[in-house]
Every structure is written in structure tokens, then in C-alpha cells.
Amino acid sequence: MNVYYIITLGFALASLLPLASRKLTYWTDAALSALLLGVLLFKPESIDGTARYFALISAIVWLTASLYSVDYDDHYPRTLAASFSMAIAGMLLILLTEDAVTFLVGWEVMTVASYLGITAKEKEGRNAYRFLAFGELSALLILAGFGLLSIQSGSVHFSGWKGSPLWNVAFFLATLGFAVKMAIFPFHVWLPKAHGNAPANLSAQLSAVLTLMGLYGMVRMLLIQRPADWIGVFFLLFGGLTAILGAAYAAGTDHVKKLPGYSTVENDGVLLALFGGAVVALNYGNATLAAFTLLALLFFAFAHSVAKGLLFLIAGRLENGTGRFPEVVRGRLSLLGVLAGYASALSLAGIPPFPGFLGEWLGLESLLQSFKLPDPGMRILLMLVGSLVALTAGIAGVAMSKMITHGAQKAGGRKGYGVEDAGYLFAVSVLLLVGILPGFLFGLVNPTVEAFSGLKATEFLGGALGIKGGFLVVAKGFGGISPTYLFLIVSLSALGTYAVIRGAGILKTRHVRAWSGGLINPEYPPIAHSAILLVTEGWLYGTREESGRLYWKERFSLAYDRLSKGYLSFSEWFRHGLMRGSDSVYVAYILLAAVSVFLYLLWAL
Amino acid sequence: MWIIKGLRKGVITSDYPKKVSDEELPPSFPLETPKECPFGAVKDGKLDPKKCLNCRLCNVPFGRKLDVDDVRNPLDFKRSLHVFFLDVGTCHACNREVAQLQGPYYDVHRLGIFFTPTPKHADVLLVAGCPTDGMVPVLKEAYELMPEPKRVLVLGACANGSLCRRKVEDFVPVDGYVSGCPPSPVQIIRGLLKMAGRDAE
To answer: What global pTM score does this model have?
Structure first.
């Protein structure tokens, strides 16, 4: 029995601790996460390279979120702490396992525990239910894919599935299941609602780690055997659409926690597009491009998870009552918290020196290299998706600047530091460290990239112009631009222009207040921040009216609404027929069953 | 139909300032100075036409066509002029006349005059109405926000200090007056053109 299973068991047992004290649970979780982090960094034996990388990202988020929760969770029911811990156990099980059954058990433990955690907040029954419904949909799709392969090959081990004739269909089913968990278009509707309304520590976990598990599943499947072209094309297209929709809605919303929720949709869309890009690149025989795309995917996953986890924690401190931006209260965050808000938002907006910038650059560089492929149709498709992702990066800047100016900036001013600040400090230093020295992370993803394309990720590290070898990221083989140069050129030219204008006295400025039409309204409202988008892209947000007629989009969303309502009421009816009790209790039974299977599996190992 | 009707009618935009038709001219003023005026337009035996409301309470025969404006401090502009219109308490008559300026008949765009939605872009602050308590700070703020060089043009008898005890002059420095109650659009255009340093003649 290796040390990772002991840690998993520790998380599972920590979910019993809230019976005594919630704080004790979170302290235990923090200690276990720190232990996990240490073991992963210094004694990485007996764990797969891919799993190690994903577990490392998760452990960083778990440590931050656990430290945060010590102060945060003092008025929620005990189920929240228990489910927080249990969901971690489920995710670790997913990461550690090599066979489909344990994977699915971990998946169910994760989903069901998170569901119970969302219901911990009052009046969130509907959103929690929606979360569970889509979670089960994804689980069913994965089960269908895995089941198909298991029956066909007679093995539940991932390694036994290689060379299966049904591979493409099963791969598509399973990855679609993972993508539903990552809120692919048109299944993106549930995510902002569920993540935006869950308690903050749980929504950080949902957005940062739970969606990461979906990505892990996809990468896992990809490493077994490569799928056909059309699957890559599917994920390229739908990933690009998801990304642009998520970005647009993130910029448009003025709900303090739905904004990061939509941002998660956006980032997951970029990840899905990169996934499709990697598949396409490898299928057309361009191993360098495939390796680079997979590297971009993995690096972007890191940037997204750590920064988004941190942003959700900050957003949890900002929200009160309505959750709208103007009601943000001063004194919610200490100075360190404000800085953490800045760091995470800047990283997500793709500003150097944070990892978000590097991730964004890697993603764009790999998607816009379509001319490397021989097929003209594929070139056009990649170029299209690349431009969508580039647009996404721009719009994300609007959303994140809203988060900073109306949120983090105004909530500062708390005296004294708490335990949560230690979490912020940890996450921010990780972000900065990785942003400045990404080489270490490249080394970590080496096994994954090598297994996929036969090339090492560290091959994309170079050195030139006085920068030491291995410290400069270069798109070796297909491009001369490096993010370091990009950063230097942009910042130097900006500083130079500023110096020239200021120095030569060309720029004469007069500072006057904004004209508010004579009204006493000094506040620049959050809705004005994105007003230009809301006005010009009225067709997207549904803010444009046209002579009382229904748009095709409105018809579509109406139909979609009716369908989801019908589905919900059907399941309600079904539930009433099946068992007339509280569904939380029922779901808890399922969790108990899953845990006992998990314990049985542990015993059997 | 509309196109045919329009074609048959020809150009309908005013020829002003090249030519002024009789209908467009401002209303008549008293032929002689009245003895007294309930609104204080007569001072020291002289009529101040900027304050005259044309109410005819003075019983003096009317009939003088008088185009009164008094622009003291014109801008040294050659081309376009940007105007911010501020209503500080009107009966809405002045507003309607100002609104006429942007209509197809007077169409001040042809003269390079533009209305801006914020004083931060304006050269001229066009004020109408007698300053009410609520609007005084707004008036001051609007003046404050305007970039240099800035001018204030005052419209109508109220703003010139006729009907109520206050006038715009008490709060912000004023550089030009247009008379009338309400002033005719032609007068307003003339005042604006003078303010822009482009005399109508």
C-alpha cells in the first residue's frame, strides 16, 4: 500500500471529523495537502508522471482552499466540511487509479460529495440539483465509454484497452462525458450557476480541481491510444465556441461569483480546443506541433487551476447578500488578500509575469501554426479556432479588470492577518515562481508529452541573448517569438513611449471628474464596464430587442429552457415515484455505498 | 411617395445665414420704450431687449423686428464648434427651439455646429432657464469640466435675469446673450456663429 493511498484514506477519514469540529477537518486537510505536495515533489516514486503533474496542481489548490476555509466556514452546516474533504478523497482516487472501476468510483464520490456540499448553502437546492444532473450525465457517458471498452477487451485496466477496434466511439463517449464536466457548449449553462452559488471554498475546488479531473481523464485517454481526426475537429470547434461564449458572458455579468464561473467555462473551452488541436496535429504527423500543443494544454491547465482557485476564494470574501459588485464592502480583505486578487486576476487575463500569460501565449502559438498541416480545410479550421481563442484572451481582460476595479480593489483595508492570508501568500508565490521560472513545470510534464508525441517538453526551453540555456521558452521548430522577448518588447516600447511623451511634454493632461449628466453618481458602475460589449454584441447577450419578434437565439434558449425544465420535472416525478424522502439523504446513501466500494478496493489492493 | 413629395418640394433647409425669410425672423419688440415693465426689462428709462418677454402688458405698440444678441468674447475659431446644451430650469420653450436646430430645416450641422452629450467635449456651454437650486451646482460643475478655451452663451429672457431674480451670470462667467422668450432658432444660430468668431454677415 503506497503513501498516496494512505493520504487518500486520510482525506476520507477527515470527512468524519466535522462531527467533532469543522476547523479540525480543514486543518487536517491542509496538513494532508502539504504532505501530499511534499511527497509529490521530493519522493515521486510509485506514481505515474501524468498523475503526478495533475496531483501537484490539485495539491496546491487544496492547500490554499483548506487554509482559507479555516476562517471562512464558521456558519455553514457540517456537511460542507465533510463533503469538501470527501471530494478531495474522490479526486485523489481518480488520479491514483489505473483501472476503470476505481476511476468511476472516485468520479462518483467526487460528484456526490460536491453535490452535498452545494446544498449546504440554503436555497441552493435547484442549482445543486442541476449540478448533480449534469454530473450524472457525464458519469453515464464515461460509463458508456469505459463499459464499451471493458466488455470489448475484457479488461478494466486502462493499459488493456490499447488497440481496441471500438476505440474511436468509446473515446468520443468518454471524452464527451469529461467535457460535460468541463462545461462544453451547449452544456455550459449549469456551471456558472452551480459554481457561482456554492460556498466559496467548495466553488474554488469545483472550478479549479473538479474540472481539472475532466481534463485529466481526457489526457489519460489520449495517452492510451490516439483517436481519429473527427474527434479532434469536434473538440476544436466546440472548445473554441465554449471559450468565446464563456469569455463574453464573463465580461457581461456583474455577479461577483458567476464571473469566475464563466471564466472557468472560457478556460475549459480553451483547454478543449487545445486538446482537439493536439489530436489533429499528431494525426497529421507533426509531432513537434503536437508536443507543443500538449505542453500548452498542460501549462494552461496549471495557470487556470491555481489562479481560478485563488480568484474564487477572493470572490468568496467579496460577496455579500446579492453578490453584485456595487455592494462590495471595504475591509473584507487584508493587503495580502488584495494583492492575491490582483495576482490571480492578472494571471487569468494573461498579463506577464504570471503563468496565465505564458499559457495564453503557448496556446495561441500552437493554434495559429496551422500552416504546418498539409490539409487546407484543417488549416482554416485551426486558424478559425485560434482567432476565437485570441479574441477570448482579449475579452477575458475586460472581465478580469472588472474583478479588480470593482472587487479586489474596493474590498481592502482589513487590519490584521488570518490563516487565509497564509493560503493567499502560498498561492501567489507559486504563481509568481512558475510565471518567472516555468522550466520546472516543463520538466514535470515531460513524461506526458513524451508518451504522447515522443518529444520532450524541455526541448522548448532554450537560451539566447544572454539568457541562460533552459530558461527561455521558445517554440523551437516553428516560430521565433518567445514570450520573454514579447514581454520585453511590449514593456520596453510602452515605457519608452511614455518616457518620450512625458519627457518632451507632448502629453498635457488635465484631470477632471467624469460627467454623470449632473447626477450625484460618482460611481462607475460595473455594468458600464462592459456596456460597450453589451450594446454592440446585443445579439449574443439577448439585450437587443427587435420589434417584439423572437430572435432565433431566444427561440433556441426558450426551447432549451423548456427542455431542461421538462427534464428536471421528469426527474422530480421519477424521484417521487421511487422514494419519498429527502434527496440529500438518498444521495448520502449513494455516497456511503461508493465509499464502501472504495474501502473494499483499498482492502483488495 | 415620400421621395416624390420631397423631390417636388425641393430643398427645405433654411438659407440662413445667407438669406433670412420673414417668417424666420425673431418676434417684434415694442416700438418705443414702455414706461414700466413688470419683469424689470425697463431700467433708467431704457428697454433692455434681452430681458423682454414680449408679454405686451406694457400696452406699447409692437412691431419692431429686432435681432438682439450681445456676444462679448467670441472664440477665435475657423471651423467647427461643439456645444453642450444645459437646461437649468426652463418652461421648455427654449428647449424646443434648441431642438429645432438639429432638425432638417435649420440643420446646424451644415454650419459645423455640433451638440455634444458631455461638457468635457464642448467649446460653448449653451444655458437656458433661470437657475434653480438643484441645477446651480450642476451648472458650475459643467462649466468646471469644460476644456479651455470655453465660453458660455445664455439663451432667453429667464436666463438673462428677467422672470426670476436670478440669472446665469450670478454663477458662471457669461460671454454672450441671446434675447427672446423664447429665442427663435435663427437667433440662436446667429449667437453661436458669433461665438465661433464667424459673424453671420
So the answer is: 0.78
